[in-house]
Amino acid sequence: MSEQNQQKRGWAAKAEAAKAARDAAEAKDADAAGAVTAVDDDDMEETEYTPGEADGGMFGNLPAKKAKAFGPSAKRLLGLLKPEAAGVVFVIGLVVVSVVLNVIAPKILGSAMDVIFGGVMGKQLPPGVSQAAFAEGLRQAGQNNFADMVSKMELTNGINFSKLTFLISIVLLMYFVANIFLWAQGYILNKIVMKVINRLRNDVQAKLNRLPLNYFDTRQRGDILSRVTNDVDNVQQGLQQAFAQLVSSVLTVFGITIMMFIVSWQLALIALVALPLSGVLAGVIGSRSQKLFAAQWKNTGSLNGQIEESFSGHELVKVFGRDADMLERFDERNEALYKASFGAQFVSGIIFPAMNFVSYLSYVGIAVVGGLRVASGSMSLGDATAFIQYSREFTQPLGQIAGMANMLQSGVASAERVFEFLDADEEMPENAARHLPPRTDGHVEFENVSFSYVANKPLIENLSLSAEPGHTVAIVGPTGAGKTTLVNLVMRFYELNAGRITLDEVDIKELSRSELRSKVGMVLQDAWLFGGTIYDNIKYGNLDATEEQIMEAAKATYVDRFVRALPDGYQTIIDEEGNNVSAGEKQLITIARAFVSDPSLLILDEATSSVDTRTELLLQKAMAALRTDRTSFVIAHRLSTIRDADTILVMENGSIVEQGNHNQLLALQGAYYRLYMSQFAGEDAEETVVDDSTAVHS
């Protein structure tokens, strides 16, 4: 397969993906308004969608918040890490070591505190009096608690600085190593996640090119765009932050709990009593804030839709003098957003102060009971100090777990939407049993073709037609007749229900889609220009084309006439929306793009419907040059553009009701005659019809 054919692979899917970017703004308005109606061309059934969290949030471009099936989706998400299993295990090992060092360090720091306190108290011993004798003397004096505390302390004659230095050095080293390991696990995990997301993006892009056109026809463009961009980004964020943080926080809570029970099980119970109360507060306040945040997003969407509508329809607002009305509607929605946002932020802001208050209650209880136990000699001052530090560090990972759990849930929900996209039904497997020569005659045959978009709702039934090599076949008819469907079937954008289509006597099902589409040049009603120069956009039709061939195509299609007037000529950069060239100029560029591909079969789908009459004349000349020596299918509503076609097919309800050239069909005074008269009603049209009819009879 040539490089040119490979680049053309997935033509339709790429065009649809490009269209999604421009349709995203329309999807926002649709989501804000309510139900969204997705319709393809004039042949498609309408399908109604109701936006919500499952559709990617407001505007269809926000990541989902909750997964439909959290367990299976989370398991599949973790399955993405299997190729990096060794790295993941190493990361977890680094986290474990880091957590263990961080958890043990306060206990050693408490021992350092005991060294200091023991040295200070030892200085108070009378000369020549042992620690035991001193404690006994205190008991005889009625100071039993103080005596118990002194008896269990390691008293020294002054602070043992060598031991203190050793303990502090150990603590500093432990914290240093723990943080080095923490940085290392973050660095390695980041590389692992980037590899996973890179593979996921590649899978999504490959899937995009394998999906049939009807997938895009029946789904909201903004939702598809959300799945392949925002949802993938949300998965990345979930894996990067939630995964490592959750593992670290869970291990930290587990480790601190063990250490608290080792130091003092009585104080540990006091610390754990605060957990249920914190959980109840977080649950009650969190559920309330979640509802308010939902209202905030809803009102945000409504306001943004209003703003976008105001800007996009600014001229119309001015024409009808609706400035005050638009301002009033803006004020109403802005006020609603203010109230919802204030309520959401206020309620959510209560969570951490409330949990901190409970934490402080626990802290006070631990300090009081711990002080009493130190005074009674039940525990050392160092252990009490270590336990207080543990109690302060205990609530931090709990809060992190709560926050990361929400992030992980959102990441799994996004992963679920990406997996739904990856699991979508693909195009039928290719059976490339036949091949065509580089240049074909372009003889197309429809043999008893039947097709429907929706089961039990036939659109085309038992249709047969022949397009001779080098002829121009025009297809006309009312909206919904099946015109665009007919050429889409030639391109194998859809698969037939029955019958077959042949190109030069070869069933197109026996050709690879890339080879078939490499023989076809297509100019759509919407002129799609990609980011880059005018030169690059023309060359897109044939990446192997020489500069001479590109210039020849530009001159033949009248592109050269306006490009020469541009300051940068063919190197003029087309902006994102193509606004720096007119609609007619964009269409001429797309025709030049088809021209340079030198196709055997040409399809023109309403290529002149969106331009003025003068530009249409240029387009007709360009298309006439393009149609020379190749079979052409031309879909048109303006009958003036197809009067010179060799064959005109009149379609109604998926069937060909009339067939012939312009004069023959006018003479029949049937469906084509009625269409023609509806466009050219009046005296001039009557004279034209008389002249044409006379020509037929003569």
TrEMBL record:
Example of a GO MF term: ATP hydrolysis activity
GO CC terms of this entry: plasma membrane
Record field: transmembrane: 85-105, 164-189, 242-262, 268-286
Location(s), subcellular: Cell membrane
Keywords, alphabetical: ATP-binding, Membrane, Nucleotide-binding, Transmembrane, Transmembrane helix, Transport
This protein's record includes keyword Nucleotide-binding: yes
Span list, region Disordered: 22-57
Signal peptide coordinates: none
Compositional bias (Acidic residues): 39-48
Residue span, ABC transmembrane type-1 domain: 89-410
Topological type in the membrane: Multi-pass membrane protein
Alphabetical list of InterPro entries matching this protein: AAA+_ATPase, ABC1_TM_dom, ABC1_TM_sf, ABC_transporter-like_ATP-bd, ABC_transporter-like_CS, P-loop_NTPase, Type_1_exporter
Compositionally biased tracts (Basic and acidic residues): 22-31
ABC transporter domain mapped to chain residues: 444-678
Function: ABC transporter involved in fatty acid import. Transmembrane domains (TMD) form a pore in the membrane and the ATP-binding domain (NBD) is responsible for energy generation.
UniProt record similarity statement: Belongs to the ABC transporter superfamily. Lipid exporter (TC 3.A.1.106) family.
Name of this chain's protein: Fatty acid ABC transporter ATP-binding/permease protein
Lineage: Bacteria, Bacillati, Actinomycetota, Actinomycetes, Micrococcales
